[in-house]
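Treating backbone geometry as a discrete language has practical consequences that deserve illustration. The sequence in question and its structure tokens are set out directly beneath this paragraph.
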Amino acid sequence: MVDMNGKVVIVTGATGGQGEAEVRLLVASGANVVFGGRTVEAGQRIASELGGAAIFQQHDVGNEAEWVAIVNLALERFGRIDGLVNNAGVTISGLVTEIDAETVMAGIRTNQLGQLLGMKHVVPAMRRNGGGSIVNIGSEAGMRGAPHAIAYSGTKAAIAGMTRTASAELAGDGIRVNLVIPGPIDTPMIENAAGKGAAQKMAKIVPLGRVGEARDVAHAVVFLLSDEASFITGAELAVDGGRTAAPSGSF
């Protein structure tokens, strides 16, 4: 386990699945965490289980005022911000000939704008610290074609582009920006997107022969946040069992 002792990290979309796993691993690694999400009951339960090292705030990543609020909360409670995990995201399903503009714009607001606003609002605090680490969460759908997911793929491809640009813009400030690309991960999001039993079906098209678990992504994220990754920026780390390197089949 990497050492995150004394670091302060904001994690979005963290009331379940990957985000919750990231929060729990960060706290176990010594970090203080301010985490957001829309499910208040779950967020409060996670915070109570983790004690004073984790603080929950209801948070809509597409709302700029709520970004100001969660950043201010982290600074008020812990005095600094060392890391950001842009984890929040939604699935957007639909064929290119059928998807409607309202659905597309709602997805862009959460998946793309949400991550951009997060980077924008943590950078001033990180500059005062002399540096920091941002980890954006993409998807294998942003790296290859994903039928029935044209809008979702578009937002995830955009995140990859934003990560590269931000890493170039912020390197001089000592702020590293990296992308984690999950493949099929066994979380409720899979079943919401692809139906009951989807995880077991997807295991057949993963070269390593299984779907990932939330902790697989969390370990990659925490490593990139840590000082052990101090010479890594602008990187794209696939946590996908080999799907990006050797795709077979489709979702």
